[in-house]
Here is the input.
Amino acid sequence: MTSPDDARTTETHPDGSGRRRVRAALAATAVALAALAAGVTLGPGLWGFFSNGEAVRAWVDAQGALAPVAMGALVVAQIVVAVLPGEPVELAAGYLFGAWEGTVICLLGGLVGTLVVTALVRALGMRVVRLFFSAEQVEGVSWLRDSARFELVMFLVFLIPGTPKDVLTYVAGLTPCRWWRVAAIATVGRIPSVVTSTLAAGFASQGNWAAAVATLVVTLALVGAGGGAYALARRRATT
Here is the structure.
C-alpha cells in the first residue's frame, strides 16, 4: 500500500527520464531562441557571409589551430538556421582542408546539426519548423513523411544531390522515427553531395582546374538527374 508520503514523493520528484526530457526541451528552446535572435540581429549580413565562399575561407583560416572546429561550427549553424546556403561552406571546407578532411568535417558538423534540429523539433514541434519554412515547403515533402517506408525514402532522397535536404531534416523530426536513425540517415545520405563539393574545391586549391571543372560538371548532371527523379517520385506519390 502506498503511503501519502510516497505519493507526495512520486508527484514532486519526476523520474530520471522526465527530468531528461525537461532538460532537453529547455536546451532545445534556448538554441532555437539563440538561432532566431542571431538571424534577426545579423539578418542580411549573416546571409551574405555564408553566401561568400572567400569570406568563409578567410574567417576559418584566421582561427589558426581551431580552424577545423570553426569550420564544423559553420556547418552546424547552416543546418540549424536552414535558410542559410550550405554549398559555399562545403566548398570552403574542401578548399582549406582538402577533399577527405573537408568531407569528414562537413559530415561531423552535419551530424551535430541534425541532432540539434531533431531535438528542436521534438521539443517545439511545428513552431520551430515554421521559423524557417513556409507551409508550401513543408507540404512539398509531406508525401515523404507519410510514406510507409519513410526511412528508406528519406535515405534515397538524401543521396541525391539537389533535393530539399534542409526542410526534410526538420520534417523528419515530426515523424516517429528514432532520433539516432534520423541523424544516421541524414549524415550517411549527405556523403555524395558533400564529397562532390569538397572534391571540386580540393582540386581547385591544388590548381588542378581541369579536374575541378570535371567534378562540377558531374555534380550538375547529378543535380539535374536527381531533381528530375525527385519530381517524378513526388508526382507518383501524390496522384
